[in-house]
Amino acid sequence: MTIVYILLAVLIFGVLIAVHEFGHFAVAKACGVKVEEFAVGMGPAIWKKQKGETLYALRAVPIGGYCAMSGEDESSEDPRAFTNAAFWKRALILCAGSFMNFLLGLVIVLLLYSNAAAFRAPILEGFMDGCPYEGAGALQAGDRFYKIDGHRIYEYYDVSDFLSRGDGVYDLVILRDGKKLTLKDFSMVPLEYEGYENKMYGFLFGVEEATPLVKLRHAWESCMGFVRMVWQGLEQLVTGKVGIKDMSGPVGIVDLMAETGEQAASTADALYNIFYLAAFIAVNLAVMNMLPIPALDGGRIFLLLVTSVIEALIHKKLDPRYEGYIHAAGMVLLLGLMAVVMFNDILRIVHG
């Protein structure tokens, strides 16, 4: 089954990139920008068809794709070229790829939750015997954890996660009877409870019925949890808590998906876990592509803002070639980083 999971992972990864590029394509068409080619996959074309002004192509390597617009990084006399489009149109086109990745992640999670009957929620159903955090001016059954020290609580396990990061004194925001209630400087430490080896806070969490709206909310909150995980990973990378050797590229992601499938107890569990991971990767791509780094969509948006301000001040349009040079340099650096990450991924796989 390993080869099947590898092929499935490659297909999923290709779809994630193709959906990203389709976002650019669809919004470019809607905004009247000329699209010269829309390709799914990379490398030599195995099928292509010219329809109107756009060449549609299916290429041999099923990872990636692109949306080639007229005048992306160069001056053009074509009034429908990307560089001649209004600021808001260019911004929408650049944002569309990440939006589609996030939307895809949301749809995948929603589909995975479609058969759920109920969800465990960060709602206090009760307390363990001897729990000191129950009572007047404290926590009560029915309370829903909303924030801990400013961090939104999406899932029930977020409660113990953020409590474990604190120093024992917390600012809590809870929902009680439909209203937000703040408990400032609320002291909590894990305690020993009879029959349990590990120290615990003594909370018993309840469940909520999986109505269509609850499913949608849980899918949204799962994706927002993914966004938070990505930002936490970036923070660890910037602060040096993790390094380049801890990063994974396409090879590592495909291997992780295949390993996830192999370790599952059944084929159904394998598919569920693989597609849940795919949803996380889709949201990851959405966030990463909006970083203000040259060659990424976020970098293009940042330079679009900078050039727009400069052009407004000097009353003269800047040559887009210079912006193209910046993105080309950024792409070279990104490709170099990807090569290093891919090399590390291969070493990890070889050495097991």
N-to-C order of helices and strands: HEEHEEEHEEEHHHHH
pLDDT averaged over residues: 88
N-to-C span: 18 Å
Number of E strands: 8
The assigned structural class equals alpha+beta
The quaternary state of the protein chains shown equals: single chain
What coarse outline follows from CA principal-axis ratios?
A: globular
How many helical stretches?
A: 8
Relative helix content? 40-55%
- How big is the Rg? 24 Å
Q: What's the story with the biggest beta sheet? A: 4 strands, antiparallel
Number of domains: 2
Order of neighbouring strands in the sheet with most strands: 5-4-6-7
Poorly predicted regions: none
How large a portion of the residues is in β-strands, by DSSP E?
15-25%
